[in-house]
Structure prediction request, 200 residues.
Amino acid sequence: MNSPTFDGAPVAHHLRSFPPHPDEHLLPRSPRAAVVSATVTAVASAVTGILQVVHEPSGESTVVGVEHVLIGGLSLLLVAQLPFLFWLAPVRRTWPAWVAGLGMVPLAAVATISNVRGEDPSFFAAVALPANALWFLGLVALAVVARDTTWLPRGLVVALPLTWAGTIPLSGLGGGVVVAALWAGAAWVVHARAHDEAGR
Prediction:
């Protein structure tokens, strides 16, 4: 039995070219902000990742010299990746991005306070511990809900929670450099796909 046709081509061909269901749209509608977000995050991750490897910390709670650059880079990458996370989240399931953001923004704020003061405030641990948990859990949930509704290869989406691991617990082992490569790859994939879509 022949497949039904429309305009000289199988109906299935046209269905594949239709826009996704509104529930599957990504935010923002233009991927440009997502590309910029991932690129800035990649650069900041590379800088902080290299510094974590080559620099010996001055202390557990003090910030001196090049450490100001390191902490500033951490604050930047935390804020910079938020537009990408909201772009990645399906419209009706943005809650994982909000959960991650509720951890990342306070963590960036308390890190900035430490950077300005030159030492951690007394409430640093009280903010950083739950903030890191929210950040990680938000990324895990986002990887689950977005794995089938994004331009990114599933491997990159699944690796999203690993960006937290490379940035925080594995930073001294060069994890930040690996994270930078993941973010650079994500930026390239979105840029290339957007270019292909624009050429259609």
About this structure: The chain is about 65% helix and 0% strand. The first strand starts at residue 5 and ends at 6. The CA atoms of residues 3 and 9 lie 10 Å apart. The beta strands are 5-6, 9-10.
